[in-house]
Amino acid sequence: MRVTVCELQDSREGFSRDWAALVRHVQDHASELVLLPEMAFSPWFAWRREFDPEIWRAAVQSHSDWQSRLPELAGTVVCGTAPVDDAGERRNRAFVFSSGSGYTESHDKYHLPDEEGFWEATWYGRGNGGFIPHWTGGIGLGFLICTELWFFGHARTYGDLGVHLILCPRATPRETRDKWLAGGRAASVVSGAFCLSSSPVSSAGEPANLGGQGWITDPEGDVLGVTSRNQPFLTLDIDTRLAEAAKHTYPRYVPE
């Protein structure tokens, strides 16, 4: 399977340029799955300490509007997250889009930080705690949205359920990139799955502190590649049979 991760600029002007470049990259590289950063279709709003209903509504509307543009990434499965209103509750919800199945909502983010720059528990509520794989074309996808990555029991459960790819859309600070990559490597080892991550990036002077760096790690935790400002998109061919075989090797076979 040919997969793509990315880092996209948080500013809307920069995001528009990056989106156009991503569309070209995906077409040129014949990508089959693209992972977008966490809540990519609006600027990162959770750096604000106080909840603002107008900003929230604008973010929800922007993500809804962008659903119609997902087919621009032609021929791919597109995964990411979006802010949503659901029966009066605010959520950060994963989605999977494909030309055959359309737009499918998935897992709601459950583990929410609430600290400087990332006041997420202030802006929206946690989901129901369900971590259910999404299957597409025989490939199992398991979402761990940003902070959820650090709760490795979920990665273990996904591995037990046969997931091939752990998907980690993030929005994380620039000074913590090495730490997050270490978390992605550990999630691969725990689950016996490839781990893919994409994250937005901001520039100096912008209110949001976002460090970018997407990655792809293999089921043994080896780093296959990372993105950077010079290489904001990374596309690799991965063999999902390696994830199937890894489920039967150390430490995945060891009973809990």
Characterise the protein shown here.
With about 260 residues, the chain is α/β, with parallel strands linked by helices. It has a single domain (about 1-245), classed as Carbon-nitrogen hydrolase (Nitrilase/N-carbamoyl-D-aminoacid amidohydrolase, 4-Layer Sandwich). It is about 25% helix and about 30% strand. The protein is built from six helices and twelve strands. Strands 1, 2, 3, 4, 5, 6, 7, 8, 9, 10, 11 and 12 form a twelve-stranded mixed sheet that branches. Helix 4 packs parallel to helix 5. The chain is globular, with a radius of gyration of 17 Å. The model has no long low-confidence stretch (mean pLDDT about 95).
Tell me the total number of β-strands.
Answer: 12
Tally of domains: 1
Strand content: 25-35%
Q: What is the gyration radius calculated from CA atoms? A: 17 Å
CATH superfamily: Carbon-nitrogen hydrolase
> What count of helical segments does DSSP give?
6
CATH class: Alpha Beta
Fraction of residues in helix: 25-40%
Q: Give the N-to-C terminal Cα separation.
A: 31 Å
SSE string, helices as H and strands as E: EHEHEEEHEEHEHEEEEH
Shape type: globular
Uncertain runs are none
Largest sheet: 12 strands, mixed
Content-based structural category:
alpha/beta
CATH topology: Nitrilase/N-carbamoyl-D-aminoacid amidohydrolase
Q: Give the rounded overall mean pLDDT.
A: 97
CATH architecture: 4-Layer Sandwich
